[in-house]
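Researcher: I'd like a candidate sequence for this fold, 444 residues long. If you have to choose between options at a position, lean toward the conservative one.
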């Protein structure tokens, strides 16, 4: 085998590899000998089929396998001999091959850059922290009580308000014609919940129990029922009763609804949950600061192919957002400006990913099987009743498993760096803690 470097440009390398006809023939003969031991053909005892017969019958497929193996083995050898750490799979292009002759191909690779992590002990970061006050606990418990509300009659003499439940009889007609499904008895309609055609509930606000109202609405033009598309419809409505949602009382009985023995235990659980939420946000804020400082403090070339892959993923998602009308301010920007902006983001992501990977490699930071199993169980719990399918999917999909492993590894490396950095806690209000840093930057 002869290997020649033909090009070196930054992190890109290109090699020409020539594999001799003799080496290829050795691989072919080796594969034929393996087949001879296992193949069964009529008229021959197992292991006694002449090589010439096997070659005649299987020669084409054996040669293809031998060439594939020769390219794979020689490319690995070329990389190993030169101690190259590649960023992506090599690009192989066969230049020349005729049966019985030498095989020549080119191999293009992109290398991982040499990275020298900075002094993490010199990093100084500010971690915002917020205390859990009793008002937040009160509000959270009140929301739990509202979630366990019950319907009670409106006893005072007043008209219906948004949020009330009007128990109604109704019958609708289109051009004087009654259609199936346009009437109902004792229907509990929550006003303002937008359960019915737009405009229907609004016209019942202000009605009293026992009152009759005529409600006129126009169905949307894209309504699935052809007869009702864009049709003006008249409903005769009798408001029979008004009800309202009454939150459950905040007491020990409410706590027992959530599996707690007392209201105080419920409040403790709520307090711990809020504290955990605040801690997660604090970590996200300090992690963002850290990544910003790492990006500012490390400048090295990144493999263009990795940037292309990252950019293409970002760009595809952006195109979906533009199509769905969820792209925000990006919707009004020229395409070239967007491409420049997001290619810069892609390059930053790749550079940070390579830096964190190098820190993890140098410090032997690994994701244990237990950590991966816990993440897999957490993922499966997101799909109740489909846990087995989730486990099977990850078992059969190595890339999906790697996608599960990657954020765990990143968090472990971030924790490793934070342990060395100087992190100063800064007390802030809850509003300050929860404020979106991007919005703050935009305002500034």
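Model: Candidate sequence:
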């Amino acid at each position: 085998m002869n290997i020649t470097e033909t090009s070196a440009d930054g992190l890109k390398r290109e090699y020409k590899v020539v594999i001799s006809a003799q080496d290829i023939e050795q691989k072919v003969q080796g594969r034929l000998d393996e087949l001879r031991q296992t193949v069964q053909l009529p008229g021959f005892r197992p292991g006694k089929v002449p090589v010439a017969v096997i070659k005649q019958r299987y020669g084409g497929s054996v040669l293809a396998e031998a060439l594939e193996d020769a390219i794979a083995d020689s490319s690995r050898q070329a990389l190993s001999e030169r101690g190259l750490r590649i960023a992506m799979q090599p690009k192989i292009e066969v230049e020349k091959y005729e049966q019985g002759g030498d095989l020549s191909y080119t191999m293009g690779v992109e290398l991982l850059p040499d990275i020298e992590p900075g002094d993490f002990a010199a990093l100084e970061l500010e971690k915002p922290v917020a205390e859990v006050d009793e008002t937040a606990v009160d509000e959270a418990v009140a929301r739990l009580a509202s979630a366990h509300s019950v319907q009670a009659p409106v006893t005072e003499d007043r008209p219906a308000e948004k949020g009330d439940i009007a128990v109604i009889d109704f019958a609708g007609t289109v051009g004087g014609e009654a259609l199936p499904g346009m009437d109902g008895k004792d229907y509990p309609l929550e006003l303002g919940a937008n359960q019915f055609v737009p405009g229907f509930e609004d016209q019942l606000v202000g009605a009293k129990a026992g009152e009759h109202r005529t409600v006129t609405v126009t169905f949307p033009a894209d309504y699935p029922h052809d007869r009702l598309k864009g049709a003006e419809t008249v409903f005769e409505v009798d408001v029979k009763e008004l009800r309202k949602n009454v939150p459950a009382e905040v007491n020990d009985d409410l706590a027992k609804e959530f599996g707690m023995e007392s209201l105080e235990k419920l409040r403790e659980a709520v307090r711990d949950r809020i504290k955990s939420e605040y801690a997660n946000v604090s970590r996200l804020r300090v992690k963002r600061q850290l990544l910003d400082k790492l990006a500012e403090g490390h400048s090295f070339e990144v493999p263009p192919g990795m940037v292309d892959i990252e950019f293409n993923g970002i760009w595809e998602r952006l195109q979906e957002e533009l199509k769905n009308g969820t792209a925000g301010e990006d919707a009004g920007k020229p395409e070239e400006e967007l491409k420049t902006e997001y290619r810069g983001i892609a390059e930053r992501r790749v550079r940070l990913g390579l830096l964190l990977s190098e820190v993890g490699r140098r410090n032997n930071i690994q994701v244990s099987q237990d950590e991966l199993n816990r993440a897999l169980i957490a993922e499966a719990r997101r799909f109740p009743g489909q846990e087995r399918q989730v486990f099977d999917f990850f078992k059969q999909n190595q890339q999906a498993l790697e996608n599960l492993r990657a954020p765990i590894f990143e968090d472990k490396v971030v924790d490793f760096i934070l342990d060395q950095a100087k992190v100063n806690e800064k007390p802030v209000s809850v509003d300050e803690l929860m404020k979106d840093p991007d919005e703050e930057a935009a305002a500034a």
